[in-house]
Design goal:
Helices cover 80% and strands 0% of the residues. The chain is an all-alpha fold and 50 residues long. The chain is rod-shaped. Keywords: Membrane, Transmembrane, Transmembrane helix.
């Protein structure tokens, strides 16, 4: 009886961790990643405008 309860709790924890892992990975792929412009590129583009 005790072994069955321990196994069920263990399986529930493993499924919970796997679900949390899948959720975090999915949100990471949905995130819009952006890259800031390099400061030297900003200076070059502003000097070309003048």
């Amino acid at each position: 009886m005790t072994f069955t309860i321990v196994m069920l709790v263990s399986i529930a924890i493993i499924i919970g961790v796997a679900a949390a892992f899948g959720t975090v990975i999915s949100k990471g792929y949905d995130y819009k990643h952006t890259i800031d412009a390099h400061p030297e590129q900003d200076r070059d583009s502003s000097s070309q405008k003048n």
